[in-house]
């Protein structure tokens, strides 16, 4: 059995739900064969989110960590390639903090790459009939903050752990009053199961295009 820790976020910016947590909870409740999954909800807060993540890692002792966040406006499941060492908030976090051009980890590297097979994960989600793509930016809000925090922990302390980040679209109930793409939480949970199963069995990523032209 491969131990996998999945994380999602609490609602933010006035929303009453966050599909990342809804989908993570569902995926962990019915993991794919060979996966022992646990799930934790992270606060949408700079600093505290990484502290909660670290505590969950210490408790679960996972081999793989998959952090998941909401990316409202994106139409598909996006598997992130790179985490940047910068917090640059367009909106406040849940405590009102709004850092601008601050490092996630002072003195840390400018960026880290995901240690998961991102292109194989995208291919698996697409093979399951769901939309997915590689993303080359995780933003500069709390999602990127957690992704970088996780990557830094892996690089400096948790060398036996692999990890990465996935962004998911709005849930349908979030877009009833606005023209934005969405995916049912059940579909997102299915995609996360495909990603965790693929990450568990794949060490060498597919060598296929997954870049952007702009």
TrEMBL record:
Pfam families: Peptidase_C15. It catalyses: Release of an N-terminal pyroglutamyl group from a polypeptide, the second amino acid generally not being Pro. Homotetramer. Its EC number is 3.4.19.3. It is an enzyme of class 3 (hydrolase). It comes from the Bacteria. GO terms for molecular function: pyroglutamyl-peptidase activity. PANTHER family: PROTEASE FAMILY C15 PYROGLUTAMYL-PEPTIDASE I-RELATED, PYROGLUTAMYL-PEPTIDASE I. InterPro entries: Peptidase_C15 (IPR000816), Peptidase_C15-like (IPR016125), Peptidase_C15-like_sf (IPR036440), PGP-I_bact-type (IPR029762), PGPEP1_Cys_AS (IPR033694), PGPEP1_Glu_AS (IPR033693). This is Pyrrolidone-carboxylate peptidase. It is found in: Cytoplasm. HAMAP family: Pyrrolid_peptidase. It comes from Streptomyces endophytica. The active site is at residues 80, 143, 167. Belongs to the peptidase C15 family. Signal peptide: none annotated. The gene is pcp. Keywords: Cytoplasm, Hydrolase, Protease, Thiol protease. CDD domains: Peptidase_C15 (cd00501). Removes 5-oxoproline from various penultimate amino acid residues except L-proline.
């Amino acid at each position: 059995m491969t131990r996998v820790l999945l994380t999602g976020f609490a609602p933010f910016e006035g929303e009453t739900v966050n599909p990342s947590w809804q989908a993570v909870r569902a995926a962990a409740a019915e993991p794919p064969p060979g996966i022992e999954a646990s799930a934790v909800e992270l606060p949408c807060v700079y600093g505290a989110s990484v502290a909660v993540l670290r505590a969950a890692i210490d408790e679960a002792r996972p081999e793989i960590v998959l952090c998941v966040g909401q990316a409202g406006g994106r139409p598909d499941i996006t598997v992130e390639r790179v985490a940047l060492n910068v917090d640059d908030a367009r909106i406040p976090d849940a405590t009102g903090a709004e850092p601008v051009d601050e490092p996630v980890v002072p003195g840390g590297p400018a960026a880290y790459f995901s240690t998961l097979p991102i292109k194989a994960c995208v291919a698996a989600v697409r093979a399951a009939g769901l939309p997915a793509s590689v993303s080359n930016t995780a933003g500069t809000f709390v999602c990127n903050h957690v992704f970088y925090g996780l990557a830094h922990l892996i690089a400096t302390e948790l060398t036996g752990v692999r990890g990465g980040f996935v962004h998911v679209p709005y849930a349908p109930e979030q877009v009833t009053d606005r023209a934005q793409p969405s995916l049912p939480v059940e579909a997102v949970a299915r995609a996360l199961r495909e990603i965790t199963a693929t990450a568990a069995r794949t060490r060498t990523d597919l060598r296929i295009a997954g870049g952007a032209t702009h």
